[in-house]
Design brief:
There is one protein chain. Helix 1 crosses helix 2. The two termini are 33 Å apart. The longest helix is centred in the first third of the chain and has 26 residues. This protein folds into two domains: 196 residues, Restriction Endonuclease (3-Layer(aba) Sandwich); 101 residues, Arc Repressor Mutant, subunit A, CATH 1.10.10. A hairpin with a 2-residue loop joins strand 10 and strand 11. With 317 residues, it is of the alpha+beta class. Strands 1-2-3-7-9 form a five-stranded mixed sheet. The protein is elongated, with a radius of gyration of 24 Å. The protein is built from eight helices and 15 strands. The chain binds zinc ion. Zinc ion binds next to loops.
Length: 317
């Protein structure tokens, strides 16, 4: 399963944001939230992989797209069968969860503290309305259902939630069984729906950006929790605090640069980010790395490929 672009962005930012930055703790919290969400989605994936479907089926995880009004949809999972579609929203919440339906208020009590949440039922209802509208446009008739799935087995769902499609992840098989049992035997063209959804799918960009003077630059020491900038000397990065040496740190650092700033990097940007002063050694490194070069003279830049973090030092010989 793939993390969203936004998730990857916040992941890198959480490692690099300067500790005294105004938003440092907000970003760390958002990263924790995204990680929890991702863990929850993985649990749903496990539950669905273990289920014996009665028909063909196709599942989209982390489905992203834009609607005609210019707003985005991030849907945790869409299950497509010839009989019905289900939209899943996964929550990894702890504590006791409550709902006041007339007010559309969703809250939890955890450690004696009451906290309001964005209502997941409304969230997923919005996806349902959107998908139903798409299907009408595509002239496909098929019912669309939704469910909010709680991926934390220690969470307690209050009785106020009883009448709503919100339940623990262990309830997923039963929920799907009931749909198979109770949905009229229509026979929609499943492969057409999957093809249309694939057309609609779009990788959305990160929902924020940051200027480079708010982040730690350079190759950061993994062993020191990315808190220490490593020094470069003859092809090796060394941490002055723990003494760790790395010849591969350059690839992770280029990957971080790509996530934060995009895939183009000039010699000057490279020197600035890596803290290498000499133009010539920077050129030498860039050439040896084997990054694709574009433009001429002052307009020269290099392309950082998507799989850069999997590159190994042997590329440098
Ligand atoms: Zn270190």
């Amino acid at each position: 399963m793939q993390k969203s672009k936004h998730h990857l962005y916040i992941e890198v930012l959480a490692k690099r944001i300067l500790p005294d930055d105004m938003e440092a703790s907000v970003i760390q919290q958002e990263f924790q939230r995204l990680e929890a969400g991702f863990a929850g989605e993985n649990r749903l994936k496990q539950a669905l992989s273990d289920y014996y479907f009665k028909t063909d089926h196709h599942i989209f995880y982390n489905f992203e797209c834009m609607n005609d009004n210019g707003f985005s949809h991030q849907i945790d999972a869409i299950l497509v069968t010839p009989l019905f579609i289900v939209i899943f929203e996964v929550k990894l919440l702890s504590g006791v969860l409550f709902y006041k339906p007339a007010q559309h208020e969703f809250y939890r009590i955890h450690n004696e503290k009451r906290e309001n949440f964005r209502n997941p039922l409304d969230q997923v209802y919005r996806h349902q309305l959107f998908l139903e509208q798409c299907l009408r446009k595509w002239q496909i008739t098929i019912p669309v259902y939704f469910a909010v799935v709680i991926a934390n087995q220690h969470a307690i769902l209050d009785e106020s939630l009883e009448k709503f499609p919100i339940f623990h992840i262990s309830g997923v098989p039963n929920f799907i069984e009931n749909l198979y049992r109770n949905t009229a035997n229509s026979n929609a063209n499943m492969s057409l729906i999957v093809a249309k959804l694939n057309q609609l799918y779009q990788v959305l960009p990160p929902r924020r950006s940051i200027s480079l003077n708010r982040v730690r630059k350079g190759a950061l020491c993994r062993q020191c929790d990315y808190e220490i900038v490593m020094n470069y000397h003859y092809g090796t990065f060394t941490c002055k605090v723990c003494g760790a040496k790395s010849r591969n740190a350059i690839f992770e650092t280029l990957y971080h640069y790509r996530v934060l700033m995009g895939d183009k990097i000039s010699n000057r940007q490279f020197r600035d980010f890596f803290g290498i002063h000499s133009l010539q050694s920077a050129s030498k490194i860039l050439v040896r790395l084997g990054l694709k070069r574009h433009g001429t003279k002052k307009g020269t830049y290099y392309i950082i490929p998507e799989d850069i973090s999997e590159w190994k030092r042997k590329r440098l010989r």
